[in-house]
Amino acid sequence: MYKVLRSYSKKAERKHELTRSTANTTEKVNGYSVTDATVSSPIHSISPSYGIGVGTIVEDVRNGQVVPIDRNGRIEAAWPGGQAFSESSSYEAREHFERKVQRVKKTRGERDSNRKSKKSKVSEVLSSIDGASARDALLQWAQDVTRGYPGVNVRNFTSSWRDGLAFNAILHRYRPNLIQWSKIIGEGVSARDRLNNAFAAAENEFGVSRLLDAEDVDVDVPDEKSIITYVSSLYNALPHTSELSRYEDVMYEYEREAAEWLHWVERATRLMDDRQLPTNLIELRRLERDLERFKSEDLSPKAREKQRLADHYAELHQLFECTEHLHIPTELSTQSLDQSWQRLLQSLNERFSLIEEQVGVQGSTTDIISRLARGIGITNEKLDHILNRIEDAESR
């Protein structure tokens, strides 16, 4: 804004060759030359408690020159002593100045908006004027990040943290492989062991200074300020997003792949359970070869995929066991997939047995038919021989 004022002051000097007239009465306020008295302007705010009356504020522009500003922050159209800008230059300066002010306000507003959109540090919030609101905001954050952990109920910054579960739950949410939750909630683990585990993990993994001792927290009413200070330090040190969000995507991908695998297995099982078989021995032999090919070429890759899914599920189950964050349906668990796989193998073996049995039956029937055909042929030959002898006897 000062540059704009300088620019248009120079322009006015060049166009009108104004000379500066000295006001009758002047005072020096913060290094500026002021006529009569001063009042708050859009550029600098001057407190009424200083005893300064309502009048006109003037700003130092360049080399001791002054530009008067009226009550609304506009540049006045006339200089003291009757010397004035021309109407056009005054209007141009005033309009340009107002546009510049609006741009500056807009830029400042955007900067303020960007600052607000960024994640505020809890330490800054706690040092704000409204301490109660900062405390409530930190408490709300702690409640949100510990949701889904049975046994954790954060209601305050004193007794809710005594057993150490809340500290471990926060760390587990942001780094699931750092805290073995199913072990830390065991009945044989003391509160101090949990506290020491959380403090050590936070210090080693996130660089959070160990501001608390387990002995100080494991009391009936821990010191609230100490807990708030440590939790705020923990909040500042943790990453912006928790790894739980990433693992939720991993769980979704596992569910998708496991569901596709299970669909294939169930469809193959229904095909194996089909008891309709061809009656032709050649067709039976062809079907038997197809089953052998299915067993070697199709089942082997699915068996490897099943093992990969089992390893994946075991990792997720270990990380989120005893929490409410393991959202994988029961029918997609490793145990359920194993059961479906075993049913498929059983149906496949039964179909092999049925085909072999049918082949045996067809083979026996063919042998019987062959023997009957041979017997009939022999009988026919004997009958022909007998008929020939009868005919010979009659001819004599």
TrEMBL record:
Pfam families with a match to the protein in the record: CH
Query: Which ranges carry the Calponin-homology (CH) domain?
Result: 132-239
Ranges for region Disordered: 99-122
Composition bias (Basic and acidic residues) maps to 99-115
InterPro entries noted in UniProt: CH_dom, CH_dom_sf
The domain of life is Eukaryota
Q: Tell me the protein's name.
A: Calponin-homology (CH) domain-containing protein
Organism expressing this protein natively: Wuchereria bancrofti
Please name the taxonomic classification of the source: Eukaryota, Metazoa, Ecdysozoa, Nematoda, Chromadorea
